[in-house]
Design goal:
- This protein is of the alpha+beta class and 522 residues long.
- It contains 23 helices and 13 strands.
- The strands form three sheets. Strands 8, 9, 10, 11, 12 and 13 form a six-stranded mixed beta sheet that branches.
- A hairpin with a 2-residue loop joins strand 1 and strand 2.
- Helix 18 runs antiparallel to helix 19, helix 19 runs antiparallel to helix 20 and helix 20 runs antiparallel to helix 21.
- The longest helix is centred in the middle third of the chain and has 31 residues.
């Protein structure tokens, strides 16, 4: 979607603000603020609503909001006196007041029937073939009454939000909504729109109940690869719509890459392109052991060799070096930290707006115990993609270790709700355990620690979290059993290793945890 006002163009698909055709750089929060005000220009937007949407509901001062509004006005050559674009209503909020023209490019029917492949290739670096998706209008079942618009509104929101995912091409509404049908042929959708994936849905209303059902299909095979059902109440349709949108986005960010990796594996590793090599690398990366970490590194290296401009492949390789240092799998910790930082920076140079790239930069600062700088990058990551569950979890982890366990708990609960099948779910559970250790509820910490350590993919440091939580709760037998398992998996881990991996800021908590680990023989 492109919005035009005055001499400005706001291009949501490209995350750009242009003045007379020249791009103007905006901080991610400032861009998100502009987009939100423009999209809601027909009404007043309160400060609380802005904080909930742009700052993810965390506590920020009025001066922080005013600062972002001031930066936005400056970018628009506006000020607080003229207020030609953004009007402030004292103690009430803000409203975008300029006249806006919205444009969604409409291709001809000839273009729809045979979309040119070189149009995608022109925007895609050599060797990198990103998947594309079309979101069709949702079908209505039952008497929706005044809520009939949700059949178009929900997929429209999904298109706008999916456009934020830098690894995915999203067909514009002007094209996908032309294929409105009660029973769409997903193979034909794939042929007409040149997409590999199609998301369809139905909205059923029965009395006061609302049920949204979605299906993601591979247009090449016609096979449904994911489906979900979301119940709610029709009288709370706007809150339900927002929650469903968030959950669908998070599910697609997991399901499509998993499916791409599976297709690549079936096609044979000798035929891998950069995109396929990257996703196979991710699967090995999330297994958290030396062998798979080495395989992940080789696959990311292969992706970079085929496409040196593939930002996410550089970020994936940064993650490899992070893991090596974090799990103490080398004697050259400083060298691994330097490599993680250098590769994350290379990813940022190539694509500063990719949430995963910003995530890896933030995590590189964990390794040095620099929680403040790490948190700044993680906040940027979640501002770029508010439903990015791994970014939200990493932010929660950092907030907790910095002594802000209430913020950490709120964000880790959000991450778990958004992505219950996430490959990092065990780490989210471990973060929840930490929040309880920090506030002194050791029994709850022990329960969450056990869940984390027993979860699929949990690495050895999570077992150390379980052992220390059980020790603090006074459950000596359980604590020693987890400690035994840790030593069996990695005999050289020490208390110092744990404290370096989890650089806790509050000294009383750090002291109690260190004493517990020492008592367990670490």
């Amino acid at each position: 979607m492109i919005y035009r006002f005055g001499r400005f163009e706001l291009d949501l698909a490209r995350s750009e603000l242009r003045a007379d055709g020249e791009r103007r750089l905006l901080e991610p929060q400032v861009f998100a603020l502009l987009a939100f005000l423009v999209e809601n220009r027909e009404r007043l937007v309160s400060r609380d609503e802005l904080i909930d949407r742009i700052w993810d509901g965390r506590v920020v001062s009025d001066s922080a909001v005013s600062s972002r509004v001031k930066s936005l006005r400056k970018a628009l050559d506006d000020d607080g006196t003229r207020q030609q674009f953004i009007r402030t209503l004292n103690r009430r909020g803000f409203r975008f007041v300029a006249s806006v023209d919205a444009e969604t490019p409409l291709p001809s029917m000839v273009e729809l029937a045979a979309p040119p492949h070189d149009a995608l290739e022109a925007e895609t670096p050599a060797g990198l073939v990103r998947p594309a998706i079309a979101v069709l209008p949702f079908q209505l079942v039952g008497n929706t009454g005044s809520h009939a618009m949700i059949g178009d509104a929900l997929p429209h929101e999904l298109i706008a939000e999916l456009a934020r995912l830098r690894w995915l091409f999203v067909t514009a509404r002007g094209s996908s909504f032309r294929l409105r049908s009660p029973d769409p042929d997903v193979r034909e959708v794939g042929r007409l729109l040149n997409v590999q994936y199609c998301l369809t849905g139905t909205i059923e209303v029965a009395g006061t109940q609302l049920v949204v059902t979605t299906e993601l299909a591979d247009t090449r095979s016609g096979r449904v690869i994911w489906a979900e059902r979301y119940p709610g109440r029709i009288d709370d349709v706007h809150a339900v719509r927002s929650e469903i949108c968030s959950q669908i986005l998070t599910s697609l960010e997991i399901r499509i890459p998993l499916h791409e990796a599976e297709r690549a594996r079936l096609a044979g590793t000798e035929n891998l392109d950069a995109w396929s090599a990257y996703h196979l690398g991710l699967q090995h990366l999330y297994r958290f052991n030396r062998g798979d970490n080495a395989l992940a590194a080789s696959l990311f290296d292969r992706a970079i060799a085929q496409d040196p401009g593939f930002a996410r492949a550089h970020a994936g390789l940064s993650f490899v070096h992070f893991q090596t240092a974090f799990l103490r799998q080398t004697n050259d910790i400083a060298g691994e930290i330097a490599s993680a930082r250098r590769l994350a920076q290379r990813g940022l140079d190539l694509d500063p707006l990719d949430p995963f790239v910003n995530f890896t930069m933030g995590r590189s600062y964990w390794l040095e115990g620099d929680l403040d700088r790490g948190l700044a990058w993680l906040e940027r990551s979640t501002t770029l993609s508010p439903n990015y569950a791994q970014g939200i979890y990493a932010r929660a982890w950092t907030e907790t270790l910095a002594g802000r366990e209430s913020d950490g708990r709120k964000h880790v609960d959000l991450a778990m709700r958004l992505s219950p099948l996430d490959p990092m779910y065990y780490a989210m559970l471990g973060t929840r355990a930490f929040t309880h250790m920090f506030d002194g509820d050791y029994e709850a910490a022990a329960q969450w620690g056990d869940r984390a350590a027993r979860s699929p993919g949990a690495h050895v440091l999570i077992a150390m979290v379980a052992s220390v939580a059980q020790s603090l709760a006074g459950n000596d037998a359980a604590a020693r059993e987890w400690a035994r398992q840790v030593k069996e998996r990695n005999a050289i881990l020490t208390t110092d290793d744990f404290l370096r991996a989890f650089p806790m800021r509050p000294e009383p908590v750090r002291t109690r945890i260190a004493a517990a680990l020492n008592g367990l023989g670490f």
